[in-house]
Amino acid sequence: MLGRGFQCYPAGVVARQYVHRPSTSVCGALLWTGAWASAGCGTGGEESVLDGDKANVALCADFADEASNEAAVSGSTQGDEAQGDRARGVQAQGDHLIALNAYYLQEEATRWVRQQPKLDERACPPVLEEVFAKAKRLGATIVRTNGHNDDVDKAGDTAMQVDNMVFDEVAFRGLDKVLCCAHQHKIRLILTLGNYWDAYGGARQYVAWANLPNPRRGDARFFVERSVIDHYKAYIEALLRRENHCDGIRYGEHPAVFAWELLNEPRGRGLDDDGTKMRRWIDEISAHIRTLAPDHLIGTGEEGFESSIEGYDEDFWRRDARADWMFRTASSFDMNTASPDIDYASVHMYPEAWNFEPRFIAAAGCRWITAHQSIAAAHGKPLVVGEFGLRNRDGMVPDLDVRRDIYRCWFSCARRAGARVMAPWMFAYDARPDWDLYTFYLKDGTEFEDPANRYAGVIRDAARAVR
Predict the structure, then answer these.
(1) Is 387 among the catalytic positions?
(2) Which of 27, 65, 201, 242 to pair with 207, CA 20 to 30 A apart?
(3) Residue 43: its pLDDT value, please?
(4) Which of 47, 107, 265, 357 is catalytic?
(5) What was the pLDDT predicted at 84?
(6) Is 5 exposed, middle or buried (0-12, 13-18, 19+ CB in 10 A)?
């Protein structure tokens, strides 16, 4: 740390201070201090969580107006010419794109492939047909899904890598189907190459394959041990050099691929405090992907955490949202976004899981988007909000109508601030059990606004707003 608002960056990275000020309206200013109710901005008196969320929703667009002006100014900054061309690919289909998360597609396709007595390379599994067709109905042009499955407990079922560089060809055929069917439906894919968490193998599994002692969830050795890094790079190379059996196109050149993400939600726990080691890993892995897929976009897949709160609105995040832990994570969004082979900035957003102060959920979501959009624009790169959601049950906002209003607020905030992609978590096909806390549907025979579909109408409206 060299002084307030500045950090020590690798050579060639410009340090900037990003302070995001609240709306200048009376209610907006009071919202950020937590005093909105006494000024008549809310119901007055002892407000409930529900009333607080409604007030936050009402003021969200007000903040987005000011943030959009900031983004318009900072957005004039551009990266190098080649990087600028790739980054403009995010905008090729429009100024703001709607995406869906459906991480399970490779699994569903693999199980379908195993059931076929004679595989028709042109046929799409029914689950893929349903998900991609409904994505189009919702107005989504992108689906974010897994490009990996390293869960050894699923060997013989859906695991793609069943041991260190030992692959199950049938499971890879399942991913072949995902790419081919997406292309047939004119859907683009964001594919994660691995997972920080234990699901589908994760960082722990790579550390275990390296025969290192006591592998654990989110193991920091994934990012620094040379044998682990080399194994991960070898998997990536095998994947991106693979020729798809459905259409004969190499993965690194496949037109269905919108982007590759280095890892789902990499965190710096156990690394150095300032994020240098994470940045070094990002530089190495993204450069490797660039050699294999020179025309595809590359993102980090991160959540947007920082190694320091300097440059953010310290009063809001510490006092109001009570979420200053997000700025002590040994990973720097700003530093990572500046990596030369990273084409877009990546954030996720889960206010309940991150223990935001309930009254500030809607406002904090908007601030999270706009703060990161300004940083991304200063680096000449678009912002992709790769995941976000509120819990359908056991959460801070039990009322579906209020959750829908908050989603509308966040979609509007992202669009007006200049974020390029918004991808709510998690879209399910009709027969998929409702076990995930964030699931939404578009069930056959129902209207978009049917409560069973939860956010389908909100997502459709968000897509219409940018056409």
Answers:
(1) yes
(2) 242
(3) 29
(4) 265
(5) 54
(6) middle
Q: Sign of the C-alpha dihedral, residues 213, 216, 221, 225?
A: positive
DSSP bridge pairs for 100: 143
Positive or negative, the CA dihedral 216, 218, 224, 230 is positive
Burial group, residue 444, by CB count within 10 angstroms (0-12, 13-18, 19+): exposed
Domains annotated for the chain, with CATH where assigned, are 81-312+324-359+379-408+417-464 (3.20.20.80)
Lowest average pLDDT, out of 48-62, 251-265, 285-299, goes to 48-62
Q: What is the widest separation between alpha-carbon atoms in the chain?
A: 70
Alpha-carbon span 120 to 49, nearest angstrom:
53
Say how many Å lie between the first and final Cα of the chain, rounded: 44
* Token digits of residue 5: 């608002």
pLDDT digits (tens, 9 = 90+) for 308-332: 988 898 888 988 888 889 999 999 9
Q: What is the mean pLDDT of residues 79-105?
A: 68
Q: Can you give the pLDDT at residue 67?
A: 56
Contact 340, 314 (CB under 8 A): no
- The candidate with the shortest Cα–Cα distance to 76, out of 66, 64, 84, 67, is 84
At a CB cut-off of 8 Å and minimum separation 6, what does 203 contact? 194, 195, 196, 197, 217, 218, 219, 222, 263
Annotated catalytic, 449?
A: no
Residues β-bridged to residue 191:
145, 260
User: Is the bond into 426 cis (omega within 30 degrees of 0)?
Assistant: yes
Q: Is the dihedral of CA 311, 315, 320, 324 positive or negative?
A: positive
Q: Tell me if 208 sits within 8 A of 215, measured CB to CB.
A: yes
What's the pLDDT at 23? 34
